[in-house]
Amino acid sequence: MxxxxxxxxxxxxxxxxxAGVGGYLYLNPSANxxxxxxxxxxxxxxxxxxxxxxxxxxxxxxxxxxxEVSFKMTRSGKQSLDAVFAGEADIAAVSEIPVMFNSFxxxxxSVISVFTxxxxxxxxxxRKDTGIxxxxxxxxxxxxxxxxxxxxxxxxxxxxxxxxxxxxxxVVDINPGDLPAALASGEVDAxxxxxxxxxxxxxxxxxxxxxxxxxxxxxxxxxxxxxxxxIASNQExxxxxxxxxxxxxxxxxxxxxxxxxxxxxxxxxDAGLVNSQWAGLEFGLxxxxxxxxxxxxxxRWAIENNLTDATEIPNYLNYVDSGPLEAVNPSRxxxxx
Length: 337
What we know:
D-Maltodextrin-Binding Protein, domain 2; 11 strands; 14 helices; alpha/beta
């Protein structure tokens, strides 16, 4: 398991470099859209990786593409995808983990595009008094994380890379919003969680906080996901959404300071933390082989750790609908079929 996971992490890194993850799509309409306005609901949680969605709304970019967008705010990608399944939203913005877990149970949904990649969204936070100042210091510690999430996958990948057997770390399942308080109270020695809760933990602990980054452990693919029936019956809407996200990405790249300030003001993020993590965010539309490799690696991890009753890895090509992105910019679709 450890050797295989190390190999998959290395392969994903190679594919990401080859694909040019910094690439983005400049999609500015020649004129404002004049056709009928379509209303869509996007299920999304607060975070830096979702910046193109929130910037697209703030700057009126969606309306330029004939979209009236409302948000179904959630606390996690799992909740966002569940909202789509329940008919409470049309599109979910999620990492691959909810896609992977639900692929064991159903096959009626698809990723239509990755729009953000990052190796810095999940981090370790600890207290100075624990003596945990580096990744290797996690051995023998008590670490809180959200079970079955990208944060737990990150933690397991990190332990493998540091040659620390999971049995030598006590992993505690805690709801994401409760992790900063659990760390501050001493219930756990460290937490592995997303940037939003990293921000909350640092604000809570102040000078007693230690943030440990491990970008080599996991690259998160944040994607747009929809039901197959929705994609089939609303073929123009996913294309318009992709164009709008591409234009929002272009805005961010040309106005980084304005974009960062908007996120700080809207969500109350620590400005220093946002600035330190910003360089690790790769905004850009794509569907490439690293998405498939990551999903397969996560599925294998879930099976081997008994997080699912399934015993076979699904064919993740069946969970990607490249049609909308191919119609907008075929060069950004490089998945091998």
